[in-house]
């Protein structure tokens, strides 16, 4: 290897404000291979630094810093509906023989289609770049493009090629379907799933902290997903991302001062746990046993403070519905 260095000044571009009109004083370091391997292009770097370089040792130190290339971390992110010529949510490329490495973890990939070529992929590197999975990702594609990008089959990755029916793209607790194609809240996604009757649907949520803010207010009853708890009136799966650390996992909570359920499968009165909720004969039995009560409110389907015929009707209308919650932390 050989190197050279010199101080230089970079002139500001035309039209620069007076505050930034002075030339930028830096050092340029050039390093190159004297005798590259046969058949390979000679390696040559031209580096700029604000560190003074007045000796070979100082120049070599700058080169060492450059060799310790940064790692680009894609963590707790969401890539959905990417449709481009490459079909890639993330593309790693570069002309250097030592490019940065991209690592992904706790990230959701869904519906990233390639409308030009035949293959569909979320991750792509051209051989010069690299992509590495650190696990805990959620994806609807297991295989990727021709350049050897990694499969998402690492620790705690969840791959389901059937994909979700809806992907939550907003942390805000909104209820306005006018902008669903740009921002879809969990509340809005559940409403869309409720509209498709008698069909098991799946919602995916990224590893964000979702705070419910649309409380019940003065409504005398609550069976509407638009406010209060998230009322479910069909067959539904909600899946998030668990990294083993609450701060970097999908988590859901009410805003400070609100005490209410977060998810409620309408007609489910036996409280058999959020791992798998269902509406069946056991729930109707609880309704019969508590009919007329204002203290034992397990079968209070409309949250009006008394068990009556309206709660029985809710159980009948939702009989056979199920709800499963995966990798969502309720705070």
Tell me the layout of helices and strands.
Blueprint lengths: L1 E9 L13 E9 L11 E6 L6 H12 L3 E5 L2 E3 L9 E3 L8 E5 L2 E3 L12 E3 L4 E4 L4 E2 L18 E2 L6 E2 L18 H10 L5 E4 L4 E4 L17 E3 L3 E4 L11 E4 L8 E3 L11 E2 L2 H10 L18 H9 L4 E5 L2 E2 L1
Parallel strand pairs: 4-7, 5-8, 6-9, 7-10, 8-11, 11-12, 13-14, 14-17, 15-18, 16-19, 17-21, 18-22
Antiparallel strand pairs: 1-2, 2-3, 20-21
Helix pairs in contact: 3-4
Describe the structure.
- There is one protein chain.
- The chain has 331 residues and is an alpha/beta fold.
- 12% of the residues lie in helices and 26% in strands.
- The chain has helices spanning 56-67, 186-195, 281-290, 309-317; strands at residues 2-10, 24-32, 44-49, 71-75, 78-80, 90-92, 101-105, 108-110, 123-125, 130-133, 138-139, 158-159, 166-167, 201-204, 209-212, 230-232, 236-239, 251-254, 263-265, 277-278, 322-326, 329-330.
- A 5-stranded mixed sheet has the order 13-14-17-21-20, with helices on one face. A 4-stranded parallel sheet has the order 5-8-11-12, with no helix packed on it.
- Helix 3 runs antiparallel to helix 4.
- It is elongated.
- It starts with a strand and ends with a strand.
- The model is unreliable at 116-120 and 144-149 (pLDDT under 50).
- Which H/E pattern describes the elements? EEEHEEEEEEEEEEHEEEEEEEHHEE
Helix count, DSSP H or I runs of 4 or more residues: 4
* Fraction of residues in helix: 10-25%
Low-pLDDT parts are 116-120, 144-149
- Principal-axes geometry comes out as elongated
Strand content: 25-35%
Strand line-up in the sheet with most strands = 13-14-17-21-20
- Overall pLDDT level: 84
């Amino acid at each position: 290897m050989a190197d050279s260095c010199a101080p230089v000044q970079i002139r500001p571009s035309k039209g620069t404000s007076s505050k930034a009109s002075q030339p930028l004083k830096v050092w340029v370091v050039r390093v190159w291979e004297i005798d590259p391997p046969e058949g390979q292009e000679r390696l040559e770097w031209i580096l700029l630094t604000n560190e003074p370089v007045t000796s070979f040792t100082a120049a070599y130190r700058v080169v060492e810093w450059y060799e310790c290339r940064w790692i680009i971390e894609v963590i707790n992110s969401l890539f959905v509906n990417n449709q481009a010529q490459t079909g890639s949510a993330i593309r790693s490329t570069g002309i250097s023989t030592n490019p940065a490495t991209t690592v992904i973890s706790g990230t959701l990939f869904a519906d990233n289609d390639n409308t030009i070529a035949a293959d569909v992929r979320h991750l792509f590197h051209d051989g010069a770049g690299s992509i590495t999975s650190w696990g805990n990702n959620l994806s609807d594609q297991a295989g990727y493009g021709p350049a050897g990008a990694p499969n998402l089959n690492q620790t705690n990755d969840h791959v389901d090629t059937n994909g979700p029916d809806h992907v939550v793209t907003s942390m805000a607790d909104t209820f306005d379907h006018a902008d669903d194609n740009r921002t879809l809240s969990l509340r809005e996604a559940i409403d869309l799933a409720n509209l498709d009757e008698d069909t098991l649907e799946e919602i995916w949520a990224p590893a964000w902290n979702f705070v419910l803010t649309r409380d019940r207010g003065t409504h005398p009853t609550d069976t509407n997903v638009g406010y209060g708890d998230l009322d479910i009136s069909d067959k539904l799966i909600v899946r998030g991302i668990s990294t083993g650390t609450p701060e970097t996992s999908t988590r859901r909570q009410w805003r400070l001062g609100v005490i209410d359920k977060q998810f409620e499968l309408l007609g489910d009165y036996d409280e058999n746990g959020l791992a798998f909720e269902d509406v069946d004969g056991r729930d109707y039995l609880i309704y019969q046993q508590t009919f007329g009560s204002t203290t034992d409110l397990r079968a209070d389907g409309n949250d009006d403070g008394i068990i009556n015929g309206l709660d029985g009707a809710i159980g009948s209308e939702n009989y056979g519905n199920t709800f499963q919650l995966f990798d969502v932390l309720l705070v």
